[in-house]
């Protein structure tokens, strides 16, 4: 690996962590507005997304739709993010491409995917866009 890919993976790691923390904080705000009994701090992202779905069902439009859309987008991104961050990286014939192999709980046979600096950077940018959407949410008082 070389510096550019380290930077791209690091940026993805930081941005996805910021999204996860922001979703946790968002759940806290939504929960406390309605005095619901949800605890997400320290929970895995899957639990946070589940809680967000439940909390969104208590909200009116257009907030409910936006919360569910954010939840769906993070669900779309997290598998590739997990592959990049938790997988085993090996080189390929092309110096700018890496094979990342990862076994998952639901499928213990290792799955290989190819990544480049650009594909990891696009994934990191997608997380930045999600974070912007969370920040720009209009929560009613």
Largest sheet: 3 strands, antiparallel
* Helix-strand string: HHHEEEH
**Mean pLDDT, nearest integer?**
89
Low-confidence stretches: none
- Estimate the helix proportion, in percent: 55-70%
Q: Which shape, going by the Cα principal axes?
A: elongated
Strand order of the largest sheet: 1-2-3
Number of strand elements:
3
How much strand? 15-25%
Secondary-structure-based class equals alpha+beta
Number of helices: 4
Terminus-to-terminus distance: 49 Å
Describe the structure.
- This protein has 141 residues and is an alpha+beta fold.
- It has a domain at 3-78 and 120-135.
- The chain has four helices and three strands; from the N terminus they run αααβββα.
- It has helices at residues 3-34, 45-56, 63-86, 117-135; strands spanning 88-91, 97-104, 107-116.
- Strands 1-2-3 form a three-stranded antiparallel β-sheet, covered by helices on one side.
- A hairpin with a 5-residue loop joins β1 and β2.
- The protein is elongated and about 55 Å long.
- The mean pLDDT is 89.
Quick structural gist:
The protein is of the alpha+beta class and 141 residues long. The chain is 62% helix and 16% strand.
List keywords for this structure.
4 helices; 141 residues; elongated; 62% helix; alpha+beta; three-stranded antiparallel beta sheet
Task: Please specify the SSE layout and strand pairing.
Layout: H1 3-34, H2 45-56, H3 63-86, E1 88-91, E2 97-104, E3 107-116, H4 117-135
Antiparallel strand pairs: 1-2, 2-3
Helix pairs in contact: 1-2, 1-3, 1-4, 2-3, 3-4
């Amino acid at each position: 690996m070389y510096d550019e890919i380290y930077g791209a993976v690091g940026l993805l790691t930081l941005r996805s962590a910021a999204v996860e923390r922001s979703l946790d904080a968002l759940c806290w705000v939504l929960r406390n507005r309605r005095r619901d009994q949800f605890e997400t701090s320290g929970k895995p992202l899957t639990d946070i997304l589940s809680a967000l779905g439940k909390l969104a069902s208590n909200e009116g439009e257009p907030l409910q739709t936006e919360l569910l859309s954010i939840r769906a987008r993070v669900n779309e991104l997290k598998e590739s993010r997990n592959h990049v961050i938790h997988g085993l990286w090996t080189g390929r014939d092309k110096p700018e491409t890496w094979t990342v192999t990862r076994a998952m709980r639901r499928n213990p046979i290792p799955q290989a995917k190819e990544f480049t600096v650009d594909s990891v950077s696009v994934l990191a940018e997608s997380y930045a866009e999600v974070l912007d959407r969370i920040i720009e949410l209009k929560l009613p008082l």
